[in-house]
Inverse folding.
């Protein structure tokens, strides 16, 4: 049940950005019935139904693949990327706790835009058109957790990837984060690379927060008008 609640939160609130009370009345009813009857199977079925109603697989997949979505503005994007880090570690204990990225002095510098937000070097201006920079800068495929992005500044991808030649400078290749190390495998960083990485993240996320399908369509919301829940 707790696992389903986490999947509800990620799918409905983090990814689809439904309003904060999406499904609240129905969830209260399910909780009351669970307390009264101890029927966990019925409660789980009701929760699964609400997940698919507010964040169906088709909607979720489309949003995750959409490179024009501003993932940097999504509250909780660091949670998704940290879960991806745990996945890449494959059970190994992470060297940096989640709190490093969300609290304290590094809170504002722990999300790295691989294509910088303010590129000035010709290496970026010649690789991305102005329209592509506008569309892709905040795409999920262009974001990665980092210890402190101030060391990368607006440098070219090869500098970020390999550091300064002959010097022991921080770079993706020597990062303590597995997802940054993965970036060292890319020879270049261009629009097609961002799209490919976003697709890979989308496929992983669909598996990580998968929810079984119930027979029949998801029920509508009759008791709190959440059937018109929009973004925000």
């Amino acid at each position: 049940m707790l696992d389903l609640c986490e999947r509800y939160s990620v799918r409905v609130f983090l990814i689809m950005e439904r309003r904060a009370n999406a499904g609240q009345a129905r969830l209260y009813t399910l909780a009351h019935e669970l307390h009264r009857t101890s029927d966990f199977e019925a409660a789980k079925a009701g929760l699964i139904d609400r997940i698919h109603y507010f964040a169906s697989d088709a909607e979720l997949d489309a949003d995750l693949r959409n490179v024009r979505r501003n993932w940097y503005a999504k509250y909780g994007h660091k949670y998704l990327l940290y879960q991806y880090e745990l996945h890449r570690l494959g059970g190994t204990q992470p060297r940096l706790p989640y709190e490093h990225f969300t609290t304290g002095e590094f809170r504002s510098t722990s999300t790295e835009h691989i294509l910088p937000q303010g590129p000035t070097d010709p290496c970026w201006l010649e690789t991305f058109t102005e329209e592509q920079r506008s569309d892709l800068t905040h795409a999920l495929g262009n974001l990665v957790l980092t210890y402190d992005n101030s060391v990368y500044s607006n440098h070219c991808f090869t500098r970020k990837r390999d550091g300064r030649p002959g010097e022991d400078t921080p770079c993706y290749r020597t990062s303590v984060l597995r997802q940054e190390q993965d970036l060292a495998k890319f020879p270049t960083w261009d629009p097609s690379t961002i799209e490919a990485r976003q697709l890979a993240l989308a496929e992983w996320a669909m598996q990580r927060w998968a929810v079984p399908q119930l027979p029949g369509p998801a029920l509508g919301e009759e008791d709190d008008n959440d059937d018109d829940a929009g973004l925000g």
In short: The two ends are 26 Å apart (CA to CA). The beta strands are 111-113, 143-145.
